[in-house]
Structure formats: C-alpha cells, structure tokens
Amino acid sequence: NAGVTQTPKFQVLKTGQSMTLQCAQDMNHNSMYWYRQDPGMGLRLIYYSASEGTTDKGEVPNGYNVSRLNKREFSLRLESAAPSQTSVYFCASSEAGTGWNEQFFGPGTRLTVL
Amino acid sequence: AQTVTQSQPEMSVQEAETVTLSCTYDTSESDYYLFWYKQPPSRQMILVIRQEAYKQQNATENRFSVNFQKAAKSFSLKISDSQLGDAAMYFCAYRRMDSSYKLIFGSGTRLLVRP
Q: Which of A23, A78, B42, B85 could form an SS bridge with A91, CB 3.0 to 4.6 Å?
C-alpha cells in the first residue's frame, strides 16, 4: 500500500498563476483533508471532505477550491496564486465515524509563489 | 473555539536522557482525543501516541508516554532514553469526539538530541 500520495513534491509559481495539487489514498478511507503548514505554526485545515460527494471549509479556505473526484482522490486548486500561499501543503485521510479515526498524512508539497 | 498551545519552541536533550514536551489546550468539550505527532526532516507526519479524554490512565507507547491532566487541560509528552532518531518537530493536536473530524494543531516544538 502506498498510503497517501501527493503530486507534485515541489512547485514554484508566479503570482496569478493557477495550479492543482493532487492527492490520492489507497486505504479506502471515507474522509480526506487538506492542510497548510507555515513556518512557526502547526498545520491548519484548509478544506476537508467527510465523505465522497461532500466538502467543507476548514480554518483557512480563502483562495482555494477543492474537488472530491471519487473516494480515492481529493484535489486542491489555487485559481490565482498569491505570495501568501507559499507554504507546505499536506493531504491526509482517515476513516469516518466517531472512533479514533487516525489521520494518515501524505509527504507534503512545498509550494513557493513568487 | 478550541486552541492548542505549545509554549516551548525548541528543546534539547542528551542522548539516552529523558525529555518532556509541554502542551496545553482549551476546550469546553468533556470528551475528545489528544495526539502527539512527530515530523522528522522528511516532513512526513507520524502519529506517536494518542489519548482519549475519558480515560484517566495515561497512554504509553514504548519509550513515549503522556501525562494527561484533564482538569488542567495539559497533555505533555515524555520521551525516555532519547535517541538520535527522535530529533524532529513534535506537534500536539486535539480532535473533538463527535463526527467533526478536524484536527487542531499546536505550533510545534523542535527537539534536538545531542550525541
């Protein structure tokens, strides 16, 4: 099992460019998440998808859109990148329900917006 | 809103010694989960240990243990017999017990291990 995979691993954009970060999981998890990690801060939730067909805003959703393409895949799109979106982006997945629901994380994407 | 605070930006420990990382949180919920994640230089987030708030017994995983003080809203991580491979960022995280799956993270503590 590959777990949670993310592409690309690194990306440099110019202000105003768009791009999509891809995430896939092979653990048959219902829930998926996108976080961003800035220096000196913990991970902050951008968007999440509790189950296939649903998405909800997290703590810092402005400037982002998401698509839950199917149960396996959850993409994050930056329509018009800004320097403030320079960050490391993590995708995660977990089971649904009220149990432990440990979140498994991908390796992250380091994004720089010039 | 729930918050998680890690007041130690960086800690240092001698190899084979014991170190304790601090975490406090704020919530009005009575039942919830608490986690410690490790992030080595590879950036991969790795779950170290977890605790259910309704359990009074402190969780233990090999060399890692927690001191959970519910009334004080404190959740510290103790690493015994520290190893060079323990060097990493450590994040404390909180999650409600209901169907809200969101993890709330602290700002992290960088642990340095001196050989």
A: A23
**Separation in Å, CA A105 to CA A35, A90, B9, B47, B103:** 10, 7, 23, 9, 12
- Does the distance separating the beta carbons of A41 and B43 come in below 8 Å? no
Task: Return the number of CB contacts < 8 Å for A and B.
Answer: 56
Instruction: Yes or no: say if B27 and B48 are a contact pair by the CB < 8 Å rule.
Output: no
Closest Cα of chain B to A38: distance in Å?
Answer: 10
> CA-CA distances (angstroms) from residue B48 to A74, B21, B63, B87?
26, 13, 10, 13
Radius of gyration of chain A (CA): 13
CA distance A42 to chain B (A): 4
With H, G, I as helix, E, B as strand and everything else as coil, classify residue A83. Answer: helix
Peptide bond preceding A8 in cis form (omega within 30 of 0): yes
Inter-chain touch A42–B97, beta carbons under 8 Å: no
Per-residue pLDDT of chain B (115 residues; tens, 9 = 90+): 789 999 999 999 999 999 999 999 999 988 899 999 999 998 889 999 999 998 889 999 999 999 999 999 999 999 999 999 999 999 999 998 775 578 899 999 999 999 9
Task: Report the chain A residue with the minimal C-alpha distance to residue B90.
Answer: A42
